[in-house]
C-alpha cells in the first residue's frame, strides 16, 4: 500500500493567511480576521489546538498596524522594492544644518 502524503500547504504571505488582497483596507483586514477567528478560535474549535488561530492573530497584528504593514510590504518586495538594507532613522544631530 502506497503511503499518502499529508503535508499541509503553508500560506506564503500574511495576506494569504487572512485571505485578503494585498490592497485591502484596514476595515477589510479586520472583517477577515474576525470571520476567521470565529471559526478557528480555541474556544470554538478545541480540536485544532489553537495553532491556526495564532497564525491568523499574528497576521492580523502585523497587517492592522500601518507601520508594521509597511515594513512587511517592503520585506516581501510588494511594491517592487526589495528590502536590501534595513531602514535607518536619521539622528537629530545629523539633520541640523550648521
Structural overview:
It is a single chain. The protein is mainly alpha-helical and 98 residues long. Helices cover 49% and strands 0% of the residues. The protein has 5 helices and no strands.
List keywords for this structure.
mainly alpha, J_dom_sf, DnaJ_domain, 98 residues, Chaperone protein dnaJ 11, chloroplastic, single chain
Short description:
It is built from five helices and no strands. With 98 residues, the protein is mainly alpha-helical.
Topology:
Elements: H1 14-18, H2 26-40, H3 51-64, H4 66-75, H5 92-95
Q: What fraction strand? A: under 5%
Give average pLDDT, whole number: 80
Low-confidence stretches: none
User: Could you tell me the number of beta strands?
Assistant: 0
In sequence order, what are the helices and strands, one letter per element?
HHHHH
Which value, in Å, is the CA radius of gyration?
A: 19 Å
Question: What's the shape?
Answer: elongated
Rounded to the nearest angstrom, the distance between the terminal CA atoms is: 79 Å
Relative helix content: 40-55%
Which secondary-structure class do the elements indicate?
mainly alpha
Question: Major sheet, described briefly?
Answer: none
Number of DSSP helical runs: 5
Amino acid at each position: 500500500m502506497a503511503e499518502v502524503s499529508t503535508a499541509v500547504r503553508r500560506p506564503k504571505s500574511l495576506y494569504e493567511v487572512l485571505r485578503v488582497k494585498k490592497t485591502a483596507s484596514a476595515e477589510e483586514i479586520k472583517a477577515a480576521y474576525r470571520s476567521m477567528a470565529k471559526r478557528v478560535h480555541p474556544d470554538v474549535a478545541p480540536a485544532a489546538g489553537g495553532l491556526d488561530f495564532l497564525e491568523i492573530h499574528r497576521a492580523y497584528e502585523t497587517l492592522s498596524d500601518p507601520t508594521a504593514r509597511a515594513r512587511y510590504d517592503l520585506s516581501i518586495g510588494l511594491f517592487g522594492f526589495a528590502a536590501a538594507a534595513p531602514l535607518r532613522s536619521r539622528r537629530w544631530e545629523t539633520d541640523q544644518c550648521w
